[in-house]
Amino acid sequence: MKIPSFANWFKKQNEDTLTPQSNTKLFIIEVIKLGAFAIVTIFLVRYFLFKPFYVKGASMEPNFFDKEYLIIDELSFRVREPQRGEIVVFHYPGNRSEYFLKRIIGLPGERIKIKDGEIIIYNDQNPEGFVLKEDYLPLGLTNKPDVNYNLDSSHYFVMGDNRNSSFDSRYFGPVDKKEMVGRVILRGWPFNRAKIFSAPTYTN
Fold first, then answer.
1. pLDDT at 36 over 90
2. N or C: which end of the chain has fewer CB atoms below 10 A?
C-alpha cells in the first residue's frame, strides 16, 4: 500500500474544501467588508477630518473667487493653535448657521490697530508694534476704517483679502477659536486654479 506524504494529504484536504461556490461566497463577503470599511472611512473623513466648502461672495478676492471649491482641514485646530495668515472657515458670530471665509490677522493676547491704512500689531515680541506686510494682497491696497482691539486669550482678528468689500472683524469684532470650523488646505476647483495652502511667512 502506498502511503501519501503529509504535504500531499494537506494539499488534497484543502483542495477538497475549496469549491467554486465557496470561493464565490468568500469573494462576496470580502467585497461587503471592503465596502463597509470604505463607507466608514469616507464618513469619518467627511465629518471629522475634512469638509468641502464653496466660496460665496467677493470678500476674499483676488485670492478666492465666487463658487470656487475648497477643502477644509478640521483636525489641525484640535491639536494646535491657528496661525497668522491662515485662511479659515468659522461660524459668523451674529448667526452660527452662516459660515464665513477670512484670513487670520491678529492672534490671542495681541493688540490690533488699523491706522492710516496700515495694520499695526503689538505683542510680547514687539511691544512697540510692527506693521503687517501682506505680500498676498494687491499693491496699493489700504485698510479702512481705523480700529483698535485688544484680543483676549481665545480671540482672533480676521479680515477678508478684499479689504474694500469685506464684512469682517473690523465690523463684527474678534472671533472665538471655538467658532472656527477649520483652515483651508486645498482649492480643488476650478482645476486651473487648484492650489495647496499653508500659512504665509511674514517679514517685519
1. no
2. N
- The per-residue pLDDT for 94 is 85
Average pLDDT over residues 22-35: 70
CA 167 – CA 56 distance, rounded (Å): 13
pLDDT band at 24 (very low <50, low <70, confident <90, very high): confident
Contact 52, 170 (CB under 8 A): no
Q: In which element (H, E) is residue 90 found?
A: strand 87-92
Cα separation, 14 vs 8, whole angstroms: 10
Q: What is the DSSP string of 128-192?
A: T-EEPP-TTSPTT--B-S-EEEE--TTEEEEE-SSTTS--SHHHH--EEGGGEEEEEEEEEESGG
Cell of 42: 469616507
**Using the 8-state DSSP alphabet, how is residue 117 labeled?**
B
The helix/strand/coil state of 72 is strand
Instruction: Map residue 55 onto helix, strand or coil.
Output: coil
Q: How many CA atoms lie within 13 A of 132 on its CB side?
A: 28
Mean pLDDT across 87-106: 94
Q: What pLDDT was estimated at residue 16?
A: 40
